[in-house]
Design brief:
mainly alpha
Amino acid sequence: LETKQPRGEEAALLAAMASADAAARDAWVADHVSGEERRRFVCRQADAIGDFQAIATLEDLDAFTGFQSWSPIARARFLRGWRRLRGEAVPSLAPAAVPPSPAKPSR
């Protein structure tokens, strides 16, 4: 089978789409992965944001990113972002309840 290489406007459109996907990937990683070195590593694992959406299991996600070795908070942040990216329901993190101030004695 012979495949046609895109030319002209079609090639430019495909390049722009790939660039937008990579930019979306970079923005998502910046929001959900801590540390510059780790961000660069995670970005190298995927060409586009859709690559992360397509990962079906935590085992596969760890195989590509190594997130299981991260600190608990970094791991939780990344997993919440990945689940949201996949459209999964993720409970919100409610701020800790602040106990009411003790009542002042009446004079």
